[in-house]
Amino acid sequence: MRKLVALPVLSADALSSVAYGPEAMLAVLVLGGAAGLACSVPIAATIAFLMLAVGVSYRQTIRAYPHGGGSYIVASDNLGRVPGLIAAAGLMTDYILTVAVSIASGVAAITSAVPSLATDAVPIGVGVIALLLAGNLRGIRQAGALFAAPTYAFIIAVFALVTVGLVDAAGRGFHPTAAPHLNATESVGVLLVTRAFASGATAMTGIEAISNAVPAFKPVEWRNARTTLTWMIGLLIALFAGTIAMVRLDGVVPGTQETVLSQLAHHSFGSGPLYALTQAATAAVLLLAANTAYNDFPRVLFLLARDRHAPQLFLRLGDRLAFSNGIILLTIAATLVYVAFNGTTASLIPLYAVGVFLAFTLSQAGMVVHWWRLRDRHWRKSLFFNATGALLSAVVFLTAGLTKFTEGAWVAVLAVGLFLVVTMRIRHHYETVGKALRLHPHAIELPTPTLPARPGPDAAPSAATTPQSPTALPDARTEEEDEETPQEIRHLSVVPIAAMDLAGMRALAYAASLHQPVLALHVSPEEDEAERFRQYWTLWGDHLPLEVVVSPYRAIVAPLVHYIEALHAKRPDLTVTVIVPEIVTMRRRYRLLHSRIAPRLRHALRPLPKIVITTVPFHV
Length: 620
Fold this sequence. Notes:
Layout: H1 3-16, H2 21-29, H3 33-37, H4 40-64, H5 71-79, H6 81-113, H7 121-137, H8 144-171, H9 190-200, H10 209-212, H11 221-250, H12 260-269, H13 273-306, H14 324-340, H15 345-374, H16 379-403, H17 405-437, E1 491-496, H18 502-513, E2 518-524, H19 527-540, E3 546-550, H20 557-570, E4 575-584, H21 597-605, E5 611-619
Helix pairs in contact: 1-8, 1-11, 1-13, 2-9, 4-9, 4-11, 4-15, 4-16, 5-6, 5-15, 6-7, 6-13, 6-14, 6-15, 6-17, 7-13, 7-14, 8-11, 8-12, 8-13, 9-16, 11-12, 12-13, 13-14, 15-16, 15-17, 16-17, 20-21
Keywords: Membrane, Transmembrane, Transmembrane helix
Transmembrane segments: 26-54, 95-115, 121-137, 144-167, 187-207, 228-247, 274-294, 321-341, 347-371, 383-402, 408-426
Protein name: APC family permease
């Protein structure tokens, strides 16, 4: 992507947080009355410094990981498996809440402009999440002016709002408008200030997005990514500071019926078209921010599944080349969270800060270890920046976790703990199954089958029983299913082999024992892996003919179906028996961790005649 496109697309999550971050901070400070609101400027200045520090530290991450350095990758590489999983838990919590919070804030922008819709906020939000699900399952991608427009419109709208407000304030000598009388319900102390700081710091969510997507930039990728990140941080600080300044000058306080940004827009633009455009731009950029999670959440699940910490079904791409299973899981989780918290942004914020800054902390701590090990040119400077980012992020994480624990942060902490336990159990299960499936020295021989009618050690196998390519079989005669005796049925057994393991060997042995032609079929995600499998096959002895299909999008069932359909079209006289190795776990809870290809093949191939699907179970 060009920088002008990458900036709005990858910055939507971070910049849109201006719509709810300042308000979340003010909603806490207002409990302290006028004295509490007076603390908004120094707290905002501290958050702006935090934005700058974390942004500079992520510039170092981009330089060190030019192929993309998400929190899970950085933490796993430098801190180990468990910290990497904890970072992944924080990321996934962040993405789920990005959808819930962005939709809640976007709906609030709509209901602020059209108050009559306020009672339908939850159904509207659920409907928007359903639209995001449908769009992403159809393979929508963030690209071009269509996705850049909402972010640029939001930036222009907020800058216009601040500019008009400052001009108006200049006319009165920058004297703040008196705020409504407030009855303080809490004293202004350390607890109130730290809670407000933790809530306002949610305006930083999404800062890591550019470091995740470095390969998407035009060359030189890392340099363009760093430039784009610098612009994003500058815009974020300017928008955040400008919003807080206008809140102080206009005497705006948070309310339940109208968002702070909507109140500021009313002060600057009245109720005319500019106000409507501001609210529309706010809702649109928040919708785009929610959609960014639909790109990142399935990608993290893919990385986890690749490392065997998540079910293998998350490796698969759907028909539209999207990680459909991850998209569906994100939708379910975000909808449950959104409905459980009644679609209220203020209720969701305490959960949000924990996941965001947990991932920040571990990512930057991992970078400290990275620079300490590498010690290349300028490593001390990079280490200092990342150490500063890690320290500040850790402070915010601990502050949010402790001060907002009873307000909902406990849910995020519990989710992280459960995630860690589940992913470790999944990894342990896959390792156990891997040991059970591993070939032993006597498992690599497969005798050539012979017909029972030709017994004896000197009997030569007939052409009908020797393993051979299906193209070497007799010519096709008819497609009609009119075979009424065993002698009239012409067989071919096709055995899909994912790996050279005991489950695959058992399926091949079973197919060969039927004394019919056998063809092994391997689906590989890339040519290098396909060549590696061919070498394994040759090492095994090349006992049976092998066909390798390269499926670059990691789909398994669709390439199998297409190959069998083509085979059937070429040889309609054959009865093709697809013999699928199937791993059967003794405990039900582990069954979802293994793909069930046979039922999907039966469903896809049911319209074709003379296709038989059977499984050879391997119990673990």
